[in-house]
Amino acid sequence: MSAQALLKVAGLQMRFGGLLAVDGIDFDVRPKEVFAIIGPNGAGKTTVFNCVGGFYKPTAGDIVLDGHAINGQPSHQVARRGLVRTFQNIRLFKQLTVLENLMVAQHLKVNRNMLSGLFATPAYRRAERAELERAAYWLERVGLKDVANREAGTLSYGHQRRLEIARCMITDPRLLMLDEPAAGLNPQEKIELQQMVDGLRNEFGISVLLIEHDMSLVMGVSDRILVMEHGKPIMIGKPDEVRNDPRVIKAYLGED
């Protein structure tokens, strides 16, 4: 593994009772890298994601983010260290407006005092203005400024995806985890998603860890790819190496 890696995963294992769902997973994610995890349904991709993101406590293995072990830490603590994620099933506050979703997301970065809010002190008002300005910036950045006051649940699926990514980015992450972000998107929205991921990586210097079934998106946006099958790694390589590897072709297409 690279000594310069932002995220290092070594010997990851996850057991659910008698089921060994993930075993022997090793990979690293480097600064400003888009790293994808692919594999057939049931390969264990989401289990790896849930271990890294703090939703599962691994049975064994090490997960290190920027030199800090995060094994078994709950997701809110992992997020405070700069690792945030989206979900395959979008988890917005659908009854809140688009703007309110971004305001709520900033609670990780803001140290609010109840008395300051009660008496509306100058410091409180400055903090509130800064949050509004930051929310407005991200609404502009992802093309949602015109729908800022609409309830999030009324947006199109593609716009909800954009809002979910903006809600992650507003927390200043170092590593953004995207769980099947292209699911439910039309071809044009997938192109725009790839452009967004490229832009976030290039402009803000973040790393991206991606699970995705859409191979055109994976091959177009990823620097390196981990291929899994039945909870185990098959290979790690660049897109061209993965595309032409017989083991990967066998895992996806089978053999005679």
Across the major sheet, the strand order is: 6-7-8-3-9-10
Q: What is the terminal separation in angstroms?
A: 36 Å
Our count of domains comes out at 2
Could you please say which CATH topology of the largest domain applies here? Rossmann fold
The CATH architecture of the largest domain can be given as: 3-Layer(aba) Sandwich
Q: How many distinct beta strands?
A: 10
Number of helices: 10
Summarize this structure briefly.
With 256 residues, the protein is α/β, with parallel strands linked by helices. 38% of the residues lie in helices and 23% in strands.
Keywords:
256 residues, globular, Rossmann fold, 2 domains, 6-stranded mixed beta sheet, 4-stranded antiparallel beta sheet, alpha/beta
Question: Care to describe what's here?
Answer:
- The protein is α/β, with parallel strands linked by helices and 256 residues long.
- It has two domains: 1-82 and 173-256, 3-Layer(aba) Sandwich (Rossmann fold), CATH 3.40.50; 96-172, no CATH class.
- The protein has ten helices and ten strands.
- It has helices at 45-52, 75-80, 98-105, 114-118, 122-141, 157-169, 187-204, 215-221, 239-243, 246-253; strands at 7-16, 19-29, 34-38, 60-65, 68-69, 83-85, 175-179, 207-211, 224-229, 232-237.
- The strands form two sheets. A six-stranded mixed sheet has the order 6-7-8-3-9-10, sandwiched between helices. The chain has a four-stranded antiparallel sheet with strand order 2-1-4-5, covered by helices on one side.
- Strand 9 (224-229) and strand 10 form a beta hairpin.
- Helix 3 packs across helix 5 (122-141) and helix 3 (98-105) runs parallel beside helix 6.
- The radius of gyration is 19 Å and the shape is globular.
